Amino acid sequence: MNRRPRLLATAAAGATAALLLTACGGGDDGSKGNDKIAGADTGGETSGSPSASATDSAARPKIELPADLTYTFEWPKTGDKDKDAVLSDSEQFIKAVDMAIAEQDPLHKAYRFYSEGTAAAGSQKFIQEFVDYKDRITGAKRYYSANVKINADGTAGFVYCEDQNKAYNKSLKTGKIEITPKSKDNYVLYNSRLRVNKQGIWITEKLTSQRGSSACQS
């Protein structure tokens, strides 16, 4: 029974990479979460959150992706510099993981620039699944329903949705694209915790996911 990696931006925090057994029927990532997108993580909002003004001067890795992989981020700016920096750096983290998959490098410096802790460890495992099967991601990915909260302790919580219905696995050996039907399981709810580092980059430390979330299908 051939089990191939299922599309998911990163793995659930503290768990193995989320898989859907596409060759053998449906699967589940096993993550538990709240379907209601009301906020992210814990803590109250504060005006004394860390400044992200240093982000422009940071030596960011260049993100280069295959031409057949496109993104739509329906994340309008909030007008708050810290919240907007969380949105921007999370976007780069997502793309960096996909670049590591395309380049078949589980220890790629780009995603590690934007993540630490269990989020980085989970991403490494997830990327390794694609390396083992010599696959990468193609198609179109859509992100929406973003909700950012700057917590009293200076961390940030970020909840968002992903629509994977037009994104597929592509074999690097044969070039074959594994077209999968539209499904509720292609809607994924994410809940992440971030902190700003000395460079002014919002680093994703923890990330949980819930596939098939009703909150992302409304």
Give a topology summary:
Elements: E1 69-73, H1 81-102, H2 109-113, H3 117-133, E2 135-150, E3 156-171, E4 177-178, E5 187-196, E6 202-211
Parallel strand pairs: 1-2
Antiparallel strand pairs: 2-3, 3-4, 3-5, 5-6
Shape: globular
Q: Look at the structure and give the mean pLDDT.
A: 81
Strand content: 25-35%
Low-confidence stretches: 8-55
- Secondary-structure element order, N to C: EHHHEEEEE
Rg computed from alpha carbons, rounded to a whole number of angstroms? 17 Å
Count the helices. How many?
3
Helix content: 10-25%
Amino-to-carboxy terminus distance: 35 Å
- The helix/strand class is alpha+beta
Give structural notes.
The protein is an alpha+beta fold and 218 residues long. Helices cover 20% and strands 27% of the residues. The chain is built from three helices and six strands, in the order E-H-H-H-E-E-E-E-E. Strands 1, 2, 3, 4, 5 and 6 form a six-stranded mixed sheet that branches. Helix 1 (81-102) runs parallel beside helix 3 (117-133). The N and C termini lie far apart (35 Å).
What can be said about this structure in brief?
This protein has 218 residues and is α+β, with helices and mostly antiparallel strands. 20% of the residues lie in helices and 27% in strands.
